[in-house]
Amino acid sequence: MNPLNPRIPLGEWADDFITWFQSAFSWLLDFVSLVLQGMYTGLFAVLSGPLFIVMLFVFAALAWLAVGVRRGWKLALFTFIGFYIIRALDQWDNAMSTLALVLVAVVIALVIALPLGVWAAKSRAVSRIVRPILDFMQSMPALAYLVPAIVIFSVGQVPGAIATIIFALPPGVRFTELAIRQVDGEVVEAAQAFGASPSHILFRVQLPLALQTIMAGINQVIMLALSMVVLAGMAGAEGLGGAVIESIGSLDVGLGIEAGLAVVILAIFLDRVTAALGSKGPGARAGR
């Protein structure tokens, strides 16, 4: 390599690695694809199968229960009207497809992020290793995750889900670690003095007190997942993202506005519900 004209073939190395990975772990990739596609298909069938009016009441009831019986009527009313507008805009199936993909990605991201965050809170060595990786993941442009996902899994819902999981995962890890570390040390010491085991302290003391901060992290995971799912329309994912990409390709302003408004309604619903659930934790009550 000429030092005056440097060239590192990083792209070629990445191509070679992906080719090797696809060949060596084809069985694993097929399994992941089967699981993700099955989860999405099943959840989409549950959300889109019943009459839309039934789902309107279901979503409104969830919102009401999340906030509370006394104060939840406002969010329930907004949810009912908002999802009715989505149906009136003829974006119901697209919205349910997007919601299904978001829920699948969020569940898997949290299954990875929450234990990793707890581990990082318990071990400073793990925290030092994880932190720069999370910094790198959050610094990477969102669209950059789609390219290797499409190469490995082709087009469709699966690459969109994979890219969404990777993109949305960092806040879950960070907020969980922060939440566990913020638990009052005296409370933990008191539990230890009474002979509580480490697992008992984690599940009965630290996690309940850290719930509000953890829910804030879950809220961020959901919001990032929703934003990424819209971009995943470029990977062939259906739903509102696909409608937005279609509107760009055909210069259909009306379709873009309709799909965009549906995304906003979904985002407000998910944000308010998760925020309300987080405010009910022991940590939130202790701070009042």
What does this structure look like?
- With 288 residues, the protein is mainly α.
- It has one domain: MetI-like (MetI-like fold, Orthogonal Bundle), CATH 1.10.3720.
- The chain contains 13 helices and no strands.
- The radius of gyration is 22 Å and the shape is flat.
CATH fold node name: MetI-like fold
Largest sheet: none
Q: What is the string of helix and strand elements?
A: HHHHHHHHHHHHH
Q: Determine the number of helices (DSSP H or I, runs of at least 4 residues).
A: 13
Number of domains: 1
Mean pLDDT: 87
Overall helicity: over 70%
How many whole angstroms does the radius of gyration measure?
Answer: 22 Å
Poorly predicted residue ranges: none
Strand portion, in percent? under 5%
